[in-house]
Design a protein that fits this description.
Strand content: 25-35%
Number of helices: 3
Order of helices and strands: HEEHEEEEEHEEEEE
CATH superfamily: tt1808, chain A
CATH class: Alpha Beta
Structural class: alpha+beta
Oligomer: single chain
Amino acid sequence: MTAVDERRMTELFENLEVPEGVKIELLRGNIVMMAGPDVVHNDIVEAVLDQFPRKKWRRLQTQDVALHQESSEPQPDLVLVERGTGPDSGRMMPPEVIKMVVEVVSKTSVDHDYVIKRSIYAASRLPLYLIIDPLVAHCVLLAGPTGTGENADYQSQSIYKFGDPVPLDLLDVVLDTSEFGTLPNVRPHRRP
């Protein structure tokens, strides 16, 4: 995609009227639309959010992230920023203030969350990327971003079953996953 095409796609994305209940993201120049989240998804996000004290953390749900070098404007399920950092207003959160992004996998987001966003977040140097997967009942913690573009990745990958604690050493938090629910009647995948 040329720079002109990328600018047009970004303009189109920013001016698109989206129906209520639809989530939209720009991922490497592609506009991706998804249905609103399941209750299981929302309960997981709430369980994570509750474990980060509000006095220390800005716990931003569905906050757009400014990753223009990737022609991307993802909207993670949860963005964690230390209180007192980042802009006080606006639609976009700059990557340099983000400590962790969280994505909760849905039936239609497996490839986006495990592949596309993994390289986008790594290329943007987001220190921690936590994938919470209610389809297969595990969490994948990615740390140590390296590389550029589509070849970017994380140096460290740890997998934790639901019910096991997830040590988030960089944030000085041990995440309790015992309340995380699973989606019924779904076909498991083979990621990560």
